[in-house]
Amino acid sequence: MSLRKKIIYVLLGLLCFVMGAGVMFGVLYLYPKTVVKTIREENVNITDTGISAAVDKIKDAVVVIEVYSGKNLVSTGTGFVYDQDEDFGYIMTNHHVIEDAGDIKITYSDDSEGTASVVGSDQYADIAVLRIPKEDIKSVADIGKSNDMKVGDTVFTIGSPMGIDFRGTVTRGILSGKDRLVSVNVNSSQADWIMNVMQTDAAINPGNSGGPLCNANGEVIGINSLKIVKDTIEGIGFSIPIEDAVSYANSLREKGSISRPYIGVSMLNASSTMQLAYAGLRIDKDVQDGVVVVEIESGSPGDKAGLIRGDIIVKVGDDWVSDIAEFRYRLYSYSPDETIEITVLRDGKEEKVKVKLSSN
């Protein structure tokens, strides 16, 4: 190619670039607000429409639960219709919402009212199943999979914080953590159970208990159960994974209860020095972890296995236990009728005991 042609091509290229830049400059100069405004509105609309559509998908399945003793309101919480059969609808909520149940009043999304009866409830799982007439159902929630969720994914709750006046309240956040082991008090003033829960920063307030934690598609991936309340802590709420909740609920519907293993012993934490002294037991002061056997029921699995008063249980299977809450959590991971190995400290020495579990 001749030098002259090369120069012509270069000049043409420069001319096209200058003309294109001039046109763009002119558009921005004449219509700057229109261009910027259109881009921003599209982004906002996409986000808002997605969340509102997800809320619309679940809201009619969510109900307000009010528990009465006579004419006195004793508890308020949230629940959601998660299943139905030919005759009834089934609401899932927390055990602690209905544990003092007398009469249970249900308020639906359209403000209609009805009553519910308890199918089954479990204090350790903190799950309860209520039954309502099928004709009262407004919608049935779609059940998702918490296992598919990743930390940082968008989640939201819908419920009735502070009672019925604020029913239908939606709060939004992210999934902050999975597989959190949180100690809770169930039957005593100290922690005696561990819950495996998901953590979220979506606001969970009194009255939200038993309500759904949903993914961005409006599918239920958890059931709200508790939150940490301290002046120095904000935005830490916990939900039971929906796979666990449904499994518990199915057992409650089939059997009316959840069958758990039982060994037939009463215990105290090894760290509870004063309580051990009142029980007439002394252990090595250097032992701080484990649970001390205080009494053994005659003929129980623990009795048959050879556990004795003063034994310090330090392991269940291959898992170390530091206190009663952790012992119960590890024990309840087994099924009744299984035989497990328990490691105890007896007279300063480790001994292994085989225990054939039975049901509670």
Strand arrangement, major sheet: 1-2-3-6-5-4
Number of strands: 20
- Main sheet record: 6 strands, antiparallel, barrel
The overall pLDDT average reads: 85
Give, in order, the helices and strands: HHEEEHEEEEEEEEEHEEHEHEEHEEE
Give a description of the structure.
There is one protein chain. With 360 residues, this protein is an alpha+beta fold. Helix content is 26%, strand content 37%. A hairpin with a 2-residue loop joins strand 18 and strand 19.
Structure described in brief:
By secondary structure, the chain is α+β, with helices and mostly antiparallel strands. It is 26% helix and 37% strand.
Based on the model shown, name its key terms.
alpha+beta, 360 residues, 20 strands, 6-stranded antiparallel beta barrel
